[in-house]
Specification:
The protein is α+β, with helices and mostly antiparallel strands. Helix content is about 25%, strand content about 25%. A 6-stranded antiparallel beta sheet has the order 10-9-8-7-11-12.
Length: about 270
């Protein structure tokens, strides 16, 4: 059966591309997407599975999806659309894969010999671009802010760009902090030096930002491998060491997830 709230499993290939597979029967398998397309792959697996679960008929050869379909899925509607432009219908060909003739696979006695092994979404036959271009196009039309495809090396570049963007946002964030944050909490991500000379990323909560170039913070989580640091410790940090931010509260949750969270989801380091 196909579920309207599917469980999506994720695995990464040696080349950094991602498989996304649902726990449906038959499972829906998203053909390996680019290293930074894990988030949109997860989105598509969830949306397509929910769409198929809503159909009364057998699995069609092609489906058409729109942002109204996204709005009908509870697990997606609260987060998407991220884009207000480029909206449009998308056509998706559903390729049903079955056991090859003469396969040695042992099937249960009561299993239908014609039952599909899995369903994989593919571009329509008249699509003229490549697979990665198709993923970008349909993701954006459905409201996902999909980055251009990249390999694993793009991760560090994306993180450096996010840190640079944060520095540009700091003056406004400081104004909001000094004004009281409207009842919300502000947190910053910083990198501490580990015992082996690496970097461990932790979150800190600012308590005093009276000096423009320095912010006094409390360490919000216990570092695993950083000597001399402990939970609740007060740190005085130069603002140029701040790497990311988040805004939220216990009641509202995260209302501004910052910049690196989405990058981590794009590269499959965090599953949305």
């Amino acid at each position: 059966m196909l579920f309207d709230k599917p469980i999506v499993l994720h695995s990464t290939q040696a080349d950094g591309r991602h498989w996304l597979t649902t726990m449906d029967i038959p499972p829906l398998k998203i053909w390996p997407v680019a290293a930074n397309h894990c988030r949109v792959g997860h989105f598509l697996a969830t949306l397509i599975s929910a769409k198929l679960a809503s159909l009364k008929s057998d699995i069609p050869e092609e489906i058409t999806l729109s942002r109204s379909d996204v709005a009908s899925v509870d697990s997606l509607s609260g987060r998407y659309p991220e884009l207000n432009t480029d909206a449009g219908d998308v056509r998706i060909r559903l390729v049903v894969m079955k056991s090859p003739e003469g396969s040695d696979d042992q099937e249960e006695p009561d299993q239908d010999d014609d039952s599909p092994q899995f369903i994989t979404p593919q571009p329509p036959l008249d699509w003229s671009g490549d697979y990665d271009e198709w993923i970008v196009t349909i993701g954006r039309r459905l409201g996902v802010d999909v980055p251009e495809p990249s390999d694993e090396k793009g991760y560090e570049k994306a993180m450096a760009k996010a840190a640079a963007e944060l520095q540009q946002r700091l003056p406004l964030l400081r104004q909001r902090f000094l004004a009281g944050m409207d009842g919300l909490n502000l947190g910053f991500k910083v990198g501490l030096t580990t015992r082996k000379g690496g970097r461990e990323y932790v979150w800190v909560r600012p308590t005093d930002w009276s000096q423009e170039e320095t912010v006094v913070c409390v360490l919000e989580n216990q570092p695993r491998d950083c000597k001399g640091y402990k939970l609740g410790q007060t740190l005085s940090l130069p603002v140029d060491e701040l790497l990311d931010y988040a805004i939220g509260s216990e009641s509202a949750g995260i209302v501004e997830p910052g910049l690196t969270q989405r990058i981590a989801e794009d590269y499959g380091l965090v599953i949305p």
